[in-house]
Amino acid sequence: MEFDRPLHFFLGANTPQGFVSRFDQLADSQDGWREFVIKGGPGTGKSTLMKRIASNAAPRCRAIERIHCSSDVDSLDGVILHDVKTSIADGTSPHVIEPKYPGAFEQLVDLSSCWNAQQLFSARQEILSLSSRISRCHEHCCRFLGAAGSLLGDNYRIALDATSVQKVVRAATRIAQAELKGSASGRGKESVRFLSAVTNQGITLFSDTANTLCERIYLIDDPHGASSRLLLGVLRSQALEHGLDVYSCYCPLSPFEKLEHLFIPQLKVGFMTRNEHHIPQVEPYKIIRSRRFTDSDALRKARKRITFNRKAAAQMLDSAARLLADAKKLHDQLETYYIDAMDFEKVDAIGAQTLSAYEQIFQQYQL
Asked: Is the pTM of this model over 0.90?
């Protein structure tokens, strides 16, 4: 895999089921990967260290993924360097990483040794209060997302009843025959990601990632998600059976069931869903409109219900994003207690050690 620019994804997102982490996708312990796991409090330099590693790797590595924090989209939760089979990630809540093969796979980067424990203990009431308020914001956010998911799920079921599954499968099969030219033996590898998430800045969609991965993008124009889910499901299965590696990007409102985008880096082809909440900034190779598979009369009969669900869901999503923005402000306050208690000379020393370890890895790979 080679990319002209870093890819941007989420590996964790707030969902109707609570926070869903796919940090199991960071690295493969059975394929010679290393995983650096950073432990430390808020504001202790975790994201800064990961950004430094990504910047240092950029001139040498051609396959870099920057994993963003969905609660603070400007911060990083992780970096994946495919060229050297190495990842580094924030291993603290809500995406806790506990080493299974310490030393043999996971390498701990412990920043807790750099803080004044007595100072933090003295501020424990303020820290506990802020942490509790942040947790409540996230809990309420997930409730709003659950409401939005139920409303949009109702529209999905209405549209599915009006959709010809046979027509969708035939269309997907024709596309697969034209595009999926696999040559590898065995089944392809699937990497699961979120390309979008409800964040402190609203709904964030990393369109640049699609433009970096693909020369051809099929844009599936589907306001209700019925045709696109069926179409992408067939294409995903076909690609994997052809021995092609894929990025499967799921919808945060249905993080285990609704495939929203599919990318096949080897072929430089992708398939993206477009609706009122996700408008990819891409130049489509072809546009597939869901109405060609749908009984428009059946949808028209349910128009009032669909419209109500759509408008109410938009309000729920907006409320969820505002709660994450509130949580970010509280998190910024929480960080001040840790920043005041940190010995950043020690933090810099640990960062230098980690960068040195990466330098040795680069040398092993002759980069």
From this structure: yes
